[in-house]
Write a structure and sequence with these properties.
By secondary structure, the protein is of the alpha+beta class. The protein has a domain at 68-221: Mog1/PsbP, alpha/beta/alpha sandwich (Protein Transport Mog1p, Chain A, 3-Layer(aba) Sandwich), CATH 3.40.1000. The protein has helices at residues 2-29, 128-142, 209-217, and strands at residues 79-84, 89-94, 98-102, 105-110, 113-121, 144-156, 159-169, 181-191, 194-203, 220-221. A 7-stranded antiparallel beta sheet has the order 3-4-5-9-8-7-6, with helices on both faces. A 3-stranded antiparallel beta sheet has the order 1-2-10. A hairpin with a 4-residue loop joins strand 1 (79-84) and strand 2. The protein is globular, with a radius of gyration of 24 Å. Residues 1-53 have low confidence and may be disordered.
């Protein structure tokens, strides 16, 4: 009997080691980014066009506009192409802007100016009617002090789009709590089963017509 027990001991030890190894593999497999490069977390202060998954924001009043808004993009700034493999597009962005990526968006920011491009699957191209019915209600709950401007059909080199213009408050500054009133242009496009939304945000009164035109005219599909 003692011989039989001694012969089982190595078997039991091996089984325990195997069970422990299986448990470690399962835990690692459930972690985010365990088999590839981790995706950077999106910064709340740099979000542009909101996604349907964003939580509703508290109700607040529009903040006063600035007399001399600090948001003009320099006329001599260079633009550099950025390609998103996940989004399937290339877009030109002012050089030197910070970048934040998530699995379904990329955001570029410099001071109070922001370009955000997001994408999601869609069964059909957006229309003025569908944007008004489905996307505007989402903006009303996810943008601070949302005020709709206009909804129009637009034509870009990348294809037809729906342009939504509106104003919203910026996120409060972390230290001072200061907010700015923003003008937002939001282009909704469609390509091969994917809706692409380009959001351009700058302080009300900033003269960014030409830079925003360069950005929107530069979009190409991969």
């Amino acid at each position: 009997m003692r011989t039989f027990v001694r012969s089982l001991a190595p078997m039991a030890l091996a089984a325990a080691i195997a069970l422990s190894a299986c448990g470690g593999t399962s835990s690692a497999g459930t972690g985010s980014g365990s088999t590839g490069s981790p995706s950077p977390a999106a910064s709340p202060s740099t979000t542009g066009s909101p996604s349907p998954s964003e939580a509703p924001v508290p109700s607040e009043s529009p903040v006063p506009t600035e007399n001399s808004p600090p948001g003009d993009i320099p006329d001599n700034i260079a633009f550099v192409p950025y390609t998103s493999r996940r989004g399937g597009f290339t877009i030109s962005i002012p050089e030197g802007w910070s970048r934040t990526t998530t699995p379904s968006s990329v955001t570029f920011t410099d001071k109070l100016n922001t370009v955000v491009v997001s994408w999601q699957g869609a069964a059909s191209p957006p229309t003025v009617s569908s944007v008004r019915r489905q996307e505007v209600p989402e903006l009303q709950t996810t943008e601070r002090a949302f005020t709709l401007g206009s909804l129009t059909a637009a034509a870009l080199p990348a294809g037809p789009a729906v342009l939504t213009t509106y104003q919203a408050n910026s996120e409060p500054k972390a230290v001072t709590g200061k907010q700015y009133r923003l003008d937002v242009q939001r282009y909704s496009l469609y390509h091969h089963g994917t809706e692409i939304v380009i959001g351009l945000r700058s302080p009300v009164g900033a003269d960014n017509v030409d830079p925003w035109r360069i950005v929107t005219q530069s979009v190409t599909w991969r």
